Amino acid sequence: xxxxxxxxxxxxxxxxxxxxxxxxxxxxxxxxxxxxxxxxxxxxxxxxxxxxxxxxxxxxxxxxxxxxxxxxxxxxxxxxxxxxxxxxxxxxxxxxxxxxxxxxxxxxxxxxxxxxxxxxxxxxxxxxxxxxxxxxxxxxxxxxxxxxxxxxxxxxxxxxxxxxxxxxxxxxxxxxxxxxxxxxxxxxxxxxxxxxxxxxxxxxxxxxxxxxxxxxxxxxxxxxxxxxxxxxxxxxxxxxxxxxxxxxxxxxxxxxxxxxxxxxxxxxxxxxxxxxxxxxxxxxxxxxxxxxxxxxxxxxxxxxxxxxxxxxxxxxxxxxxxxxxxxxxxxxxxxxxxxxxxxxxxxxxxxxxxxxxxxxxxxxxxxxxxxxxxxxxxxxxxxxxxxxxxxxxxxxxxxxxxxxxxxxxxxxxxxxx
Length: 417
Fold this sequence. Notes:
Keywords: Cell membrane, G-protein coupled receptor, Glycoprotein, Membrane, Receptor, Transducer, Transmembrane, Transmembrane helix
Subcellular location: Cell membrane
Largest sheet: none
InterPro entries: GPCR_Rhodpsn (IPR000276), GPCR_Rhodpsn_7TM (IPR017452)
CATH architecture of the domain at 116-397: Up-down Bundle
Strand content: under 5%
Organism: Steinernema glaseri
Protein name: G_PROTEIN_RECEP_F1_2 domain-containing protein
């Protein structure tokens, strides 16, 4: 068998076997956990099912902190876009030949890896640009730590399936943001001296966060679908066994998928710029693209189905579940606007139509900006819709037990009722 045929066979096995089987195994595993409840209580007979009544007060609108954070993010985004456009425009006049060569390389590789251009190198050492990007990523890390900490130290949060999924989403954002900060630092400090091992380590670190976040979005969509369609079966989600299996499965898939990147030949050292996909093999690019498209399709399918089912059934659910549902709608909308659409635009501008490399570079950095916005927007949405998250995080930093606070609130509500 020739090397080309062997490579093609390996690609087919990876795509059909790994990409195709893992999501369906995950689906089968989770639905198996609810099998008995679903078969014992056929159909969504909501009037006979137990509703979970929450004790948290209803949020009346966005808090000043959330509005300030969102305004700061939008302002930083505008400044960053201006910096990117300025650097690209000043670079165009002095590197036309390099851009033409880069354009030729892109057209010769339909799914080829991104290549370092002069505008990228200018941006990699542009101090205002680096300051804005690193500041945004640090803010992303801090706000997602606020989401993650209550799920670690608070028992009521650990037993809530939806809050566990948001914690997984926050953990994925922390991995991505930490890897991005390391990448920006390396590109600024170690120009022309970046080793293959260093760039690969940063790539794997960010890929773990990417898979954790994508998996969390898929599980959030399926979680809301089950909660709307069969609330009694949804009670199984709060079981400790279910939460542990879901976390273990998500982490295993994320780490396993990311380590596949290391199965590639050692390329040259002394990279000019450490950039994701700069030396990824063709099969891994196809794998990432295929798995990303599959997860996006599943997320949209579950989300649309949940929204359609919620039209008739949401009004008879508890106030807590209604707030969770609207939080889910906002998070999915942010996912579509800040993740799916920028990735589709990047693919269209670089692979389908014949646009120049400057547009490619600009679109690449816009993707990075929207990724940051998505990570911070999740915190803004979550903190706005669920005030108990801010209270739990504040209680942790004040070294007070939040469990007693929850019990007091429940007791007072019972007297009011």
